[in-house]
Give the backbone structure.
Amino acid sequence: MSMGEEMTAGSSAGAGRIERHKSIDRVYHWLMAAAMLILLVTAFLPILGIKFAWVDIHWITGLVLTVIVLFHIIRASFWQSFWSMMIDSGDLKDPFGKPGKYSLAQKLYHLAIAVLILAAIASGLLMWRKVDTPFWQRDPYWLSTDSWGVVYAVHGLAAMALVTMVIIHVYFALRPDEWYLLRSMLRGWITRKEYQDHHDPRRWTAKDEG
Amino acid sequence: MSLFRYASSIYGGSDTLIGANYGLLPWFALAGIGFAFAHAVFKAVAAPNKPR
């Protein structure tokens, strides 16, 4: 099946669709993807020798990322099934068996991304103090030289590790056996057959798309 | 190759940490590409029939 066919699979069988991602969560995911790409491009192209006025684009996009990540944390904590993304005993007993909504690998990936993005955001918010903004004048002496060094090191290492993670994420999204997940992040649903083939209904009680 | 960048102190003291070593960026990118390649080979050779 081609990627185009995969994206429309099950279209003629509306009753056979299982909702996987609500539209608000898909918008969050793609906004975050756009923000991440802009942040990585504006961070690393100047280092690779492609010079342009990147600072304002970078901090404004970083602020957008901070806001949407806060939105995600609040939504995941109070409106989504928070525990569906947490590693549980079922994952450890049978790491390669049929998972609930998310596999152990997906949960580990999410955990790693969460740690890296929170580290990048925390250090980025501190670095914001060294940038002139409409809210304040830069103050490079706000922290000691040694402390700034730690902040820059955390930000830089997190950013480089995020390059690794983005490459891995794009690879899995483009694998043909994962296209149904890419479709679910684009259109929100998987087919009932995909649900039965890839998930344990006792661990993820899915709802038909309403 | 160090994970960090240091600057020499103008006062002659110990070197000061100034950030991550961005010379490592290609290695981080290669780690992602290498993982993807290794996984693709594994799936193609060792586990071609498993659904995931």
